[in-house]
Design goal:
- The protein has 223 residues and is of the alpha/beta class.
- The chain is 39% helix and 25% strand.
- The protein contains 8 helices and 14 strands.
- The chain has a 5-stranded parallel beta sheet with strand order 2-1-3-6-7, with helices on both faces.
- It is elongated.
């Protein structure tokens, strides 16, 4: 059975949009649809899909510019599905941040298999991350020190996972907020600061801590 995921279809040809929606929903995926870039942005304010199937020419802009802006805050896999078939168009799509490029007319089975393959690659996180006595159960969103449950909230676990996967790397509060809270931080740093403070306390005895540097961000490292 194929991996199930959240797919955002951005396409202004309503017949193509509806046909692709039915295909992916029949496969068991959650499908979001948008026939304009603005509608796509509205979806992205509340959810980050696993795969975006994106047309290039849309009523309110083009997919290349959309992806360049999207890549500032979203890591979703992007597959261009477009009638623009020149080599320069394909190169522009990849340079903008696309992961794949299919030209119309297209084979629906090929589209399905490419999406399934991307989901297979992106939706298999390691079941556990081990850092000494600190252990993260990714599937259960739980963390343990010496076998004891740290009782993390969903946001705390997401932060710890981000830190554990980027050990030794300083990440700004803005970056962490956009990745974990899925929204621009604007000027409110309290949410990240409070969550990091709670994590520091809960990580006692793990051999790891989270340091902070003014105007730079936070770094997860060994004590």
């Amino acid at each position: 059975m194929s991996e199930k995921g959240i797919i955002l279809l951005v396409e202004d040809n309503l017949k193509i949009l509806e046909a692709n929606r039915r295909i992916f929903e029949d496969d068991g995926h959650t499908v979001l649809t948008a026939d304009t870039l603005q509608k796509a942005w509205n979806h992205l304010k509340t959810i980050e899909p696993d795969v975006i199937v994106l047309d290039v020419v849309l009523p309110d802009g083009n997919g290349f510019d959309f992806i360049m802006e999207l890549r500032e805050s979203c890591d979703a896999t992007v597959l261009f599905l477009t009638a623009k078939d020149e080599r320069t168009d394909k190169l522009r799509g990849f340079r903008a941040g696309g992961n794949d490029y299919i030209t119309k007319p297209y084979d629906i089975d090929e589209l399905r298999e490419r999406v399934i393959n991307f989901l297979r690659l992106t939706r298999r996180p390691p079941p556990r991350l081990k850092l000494g006595v600190l252990e993260l159960d990714v599937a259960a969103s739980m963390a343990f020190v010496n076998g004891g449950d740290l009782s993390l909230s969903p946001k705390e676990f997401a932060l710890l996972r981000m830190f554990a996967q980027n050990e030794g790397t300083t990440m700004s509060a803005e970056y962490l907020y956009e990745k974990i809270w899925k929204a621009p931080m604007v000027e409110d740093t309290q949410a990240v600061r409070a969550s990091v403070s709670r994590l520091r306390t809960k990580l006692a005895g793990s051999g790891y801590t989270i340091t902070s540097q003014r105007n730079e961000g936070y770094c997860f490292k060994k004590e």
